[in-house]
Amino acid sequence: MLLRRCFLFPFPEVRLVRRALHIVLHPEIRQALQHKKPVVALESTIITHGMPMPENVLTALAVEEQVRLNGATPATIGILDGRIKVGLTPEELNTLAKKPRDQVIKCSRRDLPFVVSRKQSGGTTVAATMLIAHRVGIQVFATGGIGGVHRDGHESLDVSADLTELGRTPVAVVCSGVKSILDIPRTLEYLETQGVCVASFESPGGVFPDFYTRDSGCTVPYNLNSAKEAAELLRSWKELKMESGLLIGVPIPEEFAADKSKIEDAIKKASAQAKAHGVSGKDVTPFLLAAIAKITEGKSLKSNIALIKNNAKVAAKIAASLCEVST
Ligand code: PSU
Ligand code: MN
Prior knowledge:
Layout: H1 2-8, E1 23-25, H2 27-34, E2 39-42, H3 45-50, H4 55-69, E3 73-80, E4 83-86, H5 90-98, E5 104-107, H6 112-117, E6 121-124, H7 126-136, E7 140-142, H8 153-156, H9 161-168, E8 172-175, H10 184-193, E9 197-201, E10 222-224, H11 227-239, E11 246-249, H12 260-276, H13 284-295, H14 299-325
Parallel strand pairs: 1-4, 2-3, 2-7, 5-6, 7-8, 8-11, 9-10, 9-11
Antiparallel strand pairs: 3-4, 3-6
Helix pairs in contact: 4-5, 4-14, 7-9, 9-10, 11-14, 12-13
The chain binds pseudouridine-5'-monophosphate and manganese (II) ion.
């Protein structure tokens, strides 16, 4: 038996990194995972559908840099010609970002089998990125904001698959909460139903952010005062073998926060435009993001870039601290 095992697995450490069909791991990330070094997953819908060129590529690269500067290896996840890449190279990032929108699919969980079978390309949403990150053993993931319950979601049932993914995939998502284009109280209710542990980060009283501003008017039960405290939470979550995700809401840095009433105004206008144009389903979020950026003359985009960079920094610190508390 022992001999057989040695024959099949001459390099025992290789078994530490999960292998999965259709997934191509960048060697740097494979190495980091094998040596239990901190790795932070990053999504790519933000690149393909969340921001215009060239801000999308520049932001993706700046976010990766933040992860590195704070002690972790970035793993941007996306799909090129049917191959799921974990750790896109700068060239691959560029290729994905430059593709015309009709040639790149916004890939949530449900889209993955189709895109792979047709050898298409796509940006992965929070849901799909979580699923892939978990397959290869990445535990920490940074993004701007997750999807949620839409403002009319109780009637339309437009509820992002990000929320159900958080209910079933054990990955810790570091973000600035959900955008106020969504129904935040209902989103938090839904996360509770899904059994997702939600905490704010360095936000006394558990004040939960709403992407462009630091205070959504909603609170969550827990606040984490440092990356170390967050890492301790992650360690317990791992020890308990929770099969659900964890959500950490980091408020946008004060100096980049938007004026609440101005952004609310822009959101109302953008939502009215979406209704008038009959935008529905997966096109709603990208449409609203672009419309809000236009209405605010680019200010919302600046806030968006600042907060995602900050989230990448926090996530890297948490991932690094988790490696320390776990050894
Ligand atoms: N929120 C943003 N920017 C984004 C998204 C959300 O501020 O780019 C993207 C994320 O990839 C998220 C997805 O997972 O939109 C949610 O889309 P939907 O609501 O269709 O599930
Ligand atoms: Mn939707």
